[in-house]
């Protein structure tokens, strides 16, 4: 159960998928996530087979937010990287919001990439993420909860597109007609996740556009460093703590310091110069001789797994053809059944500790599969699935056969990757 879920929400009765038809055409399939508001389900439109994400919130929730969030999504409709809303209503004892089904969150992909993104991936993501926030600002709202979990990748032809979600804490910062900005205030309660909150937010100052942009800077640092400088630091004195923070920053490109200094220097009502911030990272991208080819770190992992499958196929004996077939089905766009994915204890063990995303991905389009974890079933992006299942089958094959070269069986499985497979990873 999500620790933020209220007692009322966590204990609410959920009808079986066969008895709960939403809006006359949407049926629940399985739970794929949860949050402080309630739960997220994979759903299907029974009239055309289209899969969707369905958010359910108890009408008895102490702080209902789905109605507000649905209104925000309607205001933002049509924006690049904004999910499309299909339906909102109160059904039986629930507030229901139905929206596009998206891929894994960047936090999920970060975990599966051993909690470190290369600078190339960070910079490609930064360009899109700035654009998403700019669009929200142009609609006169601030997000107020920018974090790694709220950016998701699309699926299908949108698989390289970043989406921004979760507008339950968003706030209107200026009037549509008069363009009057909200007033500066102090002694405000902390809104959003403390880890990525701006300095002014921690000081109790009313949030504005500058704060979302500062939070984004922290998210980008987090992706490249694996953690933030202030996470888990212990020191006897303040001086020693600052020295440790300085060590953490060593080797980090100056452009990120320039980004944060710029955001922190903005006045309360001042609009960020989005093009300036994009250019900071674009120039760094070119300086590092990267190509904007949408080859993210998880894309590279998929290719490595495909190469591993080819190596295994070359040394697999006839008696192991069935296992090899299981591996190959995860490498190509073919349907993989849940039974195949969970047929061995090894597969289930590998996925212990994996975290479900906020909105799941398609399981039936041949490119996404359902996985089991200690917390239940969830859906994952193909590079993740292929990688984990291949490791599981490799371990099984190494135990069964002495004809498989150990180096091939364990190729690309680092110590940190094995720690993650066991369900433990650094914060």
Automatic annotation (TrEMBL):
Gene Ontology molecular function terms on file: ATP binding; protein serine/threonine kinase activity
GO cellular component: cytoplasm
Keyword Nucleotide-binding: yes
Alphabetically ordered keywords of this record: ATP-binding, Cytoplasm, Kinase, Nucleotide-binding, Serine/threonine-protein kinase, Transferase, Wnt signaling pathway
InterPro entries on file: CK1_Ser-Thr_kinase, Kinase-like_dom_sf, Prot_kinase_dom, Protein_kinase_ATP_BS
Compartmental location: Cytoplasm
SUPFAM superfamilies linked to this entry: Protein kinase-like (PK-like)
Known catalytic reactions: L-seryl-[protein] + ATP = O-phospho-L-seryl-[protein] + ADP + H(+); L-threonyl-[protein] + ATP = O-phospho-L-threonyl-[protein] + ADP + H(+)
The UniProt record lists the keyword Metal-binding: no
Residues the record lists as binding ATP: 55
GO biological process: Wnt signaling pathway
Domain Protein kinase span(s) in chain numbering: 26-285
Broadest EC class assigned to this enzyme: transferase
Record-listed E.C. numbers: 2.7.11.1
Residue ranges of coiled coil: none
Domain of life the protein comes from: Eukaryota
Classification via PANTHER family: CASEIN KINASE-RELATED
Sequence similarity: Belongs to the protein kinase superfamily. CK1 Ser/Thr protein kinase family. Casein kinase I subfamily.
Name under which the protein is recorded: non-specific serine/threonine protein kinase
Origin species: Rotaria magnacalcarata
Organism lineage: Eukaryota, Metazoa, Spiralia, Gnathifera, Rotifera
């Amino acid at each position: 159960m999500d620790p933020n879920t209220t007692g009322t929400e966590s204990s609410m009765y959920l009808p079986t998928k066969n008895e709960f038809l939403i809006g006359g055409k949407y049926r629940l399939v399985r739970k794929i996530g949860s949050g402080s508001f309630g739960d997220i389900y994979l759903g299907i439109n029974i009239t055309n087979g289209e899969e969707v994400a369905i958010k359910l919130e108890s009408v008895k929730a102490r702080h209902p937010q789905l109605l507000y969030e649905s209104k925000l999504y309607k205001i933002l409709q049509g924006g690049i990287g904004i999910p499309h809303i299909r339906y909102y209503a109160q059904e039986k004892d629930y507030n229901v919001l139905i929206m596009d089904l998206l891929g894994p969150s960047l936090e999920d992909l970060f975990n599966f990439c051993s909690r470190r993104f290369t600078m190339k991936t960070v910079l490609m993501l930064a360009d899109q993420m700035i654009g998403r926030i700019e669009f929200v600002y142009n609609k006169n709202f601030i997000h107020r909860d920018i974090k790694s979990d709220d950016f998701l990748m699309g699926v299908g032809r949108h698989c390289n597109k970043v989406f921004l979600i979760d507008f339950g804490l968003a706030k209107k910062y200026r009037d549509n007609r008069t363009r009057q900005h909200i007033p500066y205030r102090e002694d405000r309660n902390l809104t959003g996740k403390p880890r990525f909150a701006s300095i002014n937010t921690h000081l109790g100052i009313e949030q504005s556009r500058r704060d979302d942009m500062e939070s984004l800077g922290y998210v980008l640092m987090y992706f490249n460093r694996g953690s933030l400088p202030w996470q888990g630091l212990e020191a006897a004195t303040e001086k020693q703590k600052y020295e440790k923070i300085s060590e953490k920053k060593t080797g980090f490109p100056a452009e990120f310091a320039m980004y944060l200094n710029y955001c922190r220097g903005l006045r309360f009502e001042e609009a960020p110069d989005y093009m300036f911030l994009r250019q900071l990272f674009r120039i760094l991208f070119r300086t590092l001789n990267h190509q904007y080819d949408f080859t993210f770190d998880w894309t590279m992992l998929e290719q490595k797994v495909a190469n591993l499958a080819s190596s295994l196929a070359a040394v697999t004996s006839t008696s192991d053809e069935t296992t090899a077939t299981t591996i190959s089905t995860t490498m190509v766009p073919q349907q993989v059944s849940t039974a195949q994915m969970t047929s061995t204890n090894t597969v289930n063990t590998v996925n212990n500790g994996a975290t479900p995303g906020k909105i799941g991905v398609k399981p039936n389009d041949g490119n996404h599969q359902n996985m089991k974890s200690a917390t239940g079933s969830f859906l994952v992006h193909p590079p993740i699935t292929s990688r984990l299942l291949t490791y599981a089958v490799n371990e099984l094959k190494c135990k069964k056969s002495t004809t498989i070269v150990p180096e091939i069986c364990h190729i690309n499985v680092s110590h940190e990757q094995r720690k993650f497979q066991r369900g433990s990873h650094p914060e």
